[in-house]
Amino acid sequence: MNLRLRDDQQEALKLRAEEEGRSMHAIVLQAIDRYLEQEADRTTVRRLGAKYAAGHADLLRRLGE
């Protein structure tokens, strides 16, 4: 996989890596890991929300009245 960054992104990433004493590669990998974890959490929340909304549809309807 190749990752193409805009020039401003490349420069900002380079500066951040220098400030943190880390490689640009390590920062990008961490960002990807965070993104994947957040999306997995969102998927879980959506799934559980749908499950409990369906199971408590009558109660939710009455609360909305």
UniProtKB/TrEMBL annotation:
InterPro entries the record matches: Arc_DNA-bd_dom, Arc_rbn_hlx_hlx, Ribbon_hlx_hlx
| Domain Arc-like DNA binding: start-end pairs | 2-40
The cross-references to SUPFAM superfamilies, in alphabetical order and at most eight, read: Ribbon-helix-helix
Pfam families listed in its UniProt record: Arc
Q: Name one GO molecular function term.
A: DNA binding
Recorded source organism is Streptomyces bluensis
Keyword annotations: DNA-binding
Q: What's the protein called, per UniProt?
A: Arc family DNA-binding protein
